[in-house]
TrEMBL record:
InterPro entries: Collagen-bd_Cna-like_B-typ_dom, LPXTG_anchor. Keywords: Cell wall, Collagen, Membrane, Peptidoglycan-anchor, Secreted, Signal, Transmembrane, Transmembrane helix. Residues 290-324 form the Gram-positive cocci surface proteins LPxTG domain. This is Collagen adhesin. Gene3D superfamilies: Collagen-binding surface protein Cna, B-type domain (2.60.40.1140). The chain crosses the membrane at residues 299-317. PROSITE patterns: GRAM_POS_ANCHORING.
Length: 324
């Protein structure tokens, strides 16, 4: 960033750069102390505002000016209302409270009990909008409500009165550094299981649907026993390991984790190359393709002699052929 020195409110010299490598500091030297017999007042200002920051200048300490840039992280909120589709609680089975869970990028971060005294309205406020420069995707789920199935539309929850029925919501969480290695698929399929057996057909989870899906109108019991529902991926994703969290009533979270693998690098490339070269040379020596130590001179003279002899022999043969 650039800052400008001012003397008695007027620019003095050119702007200078403040950088991290210079510890964000700069010193002007050889400045005039007085002008027309009056002491000069020096101050410093940034040449332009830094987006997302507020600036405060402290120049009370003579000769030492501190510029403080303060960033207030952006915050957001998630709010909505629970709607009951039960003919105004005609059977009197509507619960007094429900529990709503807030998920940030698929990770549970908060929960809230919602009641009729709140008009079934909920709100999570002062939530960080970004993490590591990436916008956080907030979604909601709720614990299973007996005799009701849940429909989630963005931030709105609709509970349909369906005696003997229940619902199950699955959410995919990605633990891969914001897909830093580009391995995350555009979609994947998951299978619902009821008491360990497949229930229905696989369904797609996609980014456009916030990696979530809700099965509704599921049987709550079978043969008088409460049904246990869980979800699994239909195929393993290359480069990921999957863990399933299904201990929260009706809310199943599948977390796919990816740890980048670094290619192995030789600890001493020079040494490695020398060893390879040594092995090749040794193989050639062993099979007499290269002269042994101390035989270099003899080997060279022998080769020269053979070449001369071949040339002379060729010349003689050629001459005899012509004479014939």
């Amino acid at each position: 960033m650039q800052v400008q020195l001012y003397a008695n409110g007027k620019k003095s010299g050119e702007p200078v750069d403040l950088t991290a490598t210079a510890d964000w500091t700069h010193t002007w030297t050889d400045l005039a102390v007085n002008q027309n017999g009056q002491k000069i007042s020096y101050t410093v200002k940034e040449t332009q505002k830094t987006p997302g920051y507020t600036t405060q200048v402290d120049d009370q300490n003579t000769g030492n000016i501190v510029i403080t840039n303060t960033h207030q992280p952006a915050v957001t909120s998630v709010k909505g209302t629970k709607t009951w589709a039960d003919h105004d609680n005609q059977d009197g089975v509507r619960p007094k409270a429900i529990t709503i869970h807030l998920l940030a990028d698929g990770q549970p971060v908060a929960e809230k009990k919602v009641t009729a005294s709140d008009d079934w309205h909920y709100e999570f406020s002062n939530l960080p909008e970004y993490q590591n420069g990436q916008k956080i995707n907030y979604t909601i789920t709720e614990d299973t409500v007996k005799n009701y199935t849940t429909e989630i539309k963005a931030d709105q929850l609709i509970n349909h009165y369906t005696p003997g029925k229940t619902s199950v919501t699955v959410t995919k969480q990605w633990n891969d550094g914001q897909d830093q290695d580009g391995l995350r698929p555009n979609h994947l399929q998951v299978q619902l299981y009821a008491n360990g057996k497949k229930s229905g057909e696989p369904v797609d989870l996609t980014a456009t649907a916030d990696w979530t899906y809700t099965w509704t109108n599921l049987a709550a019991k079978r043969n008088g026993q409460t049904m246990r529902y869980t979800v699994r991926e239909t195929t393993a994703l290359k480069g990921y390991t999957a863990t399933v969290q299904d201990n929260t009533s009706g809310n199943i979270i599948i977390t796919n984790s990816h740890t980048p693998t670094e290619s192995e690098k030789p600890t001493n490339p020079g040494h490695s190359l020398a060893v390879i070269h040594k092995k090749i040379t040794h193989w050639l020596v062993k099979h007499h393709f290269l002269p042994q130590t101390g035989e270099q001179r003899t080997f060279t003279l022998t080769i020269i002699g053979i070449l001369i002899l071949a040339c002379v022999t060729g010349y003689v043969v050629k001459k005899r052929f012509k004479n014939k």
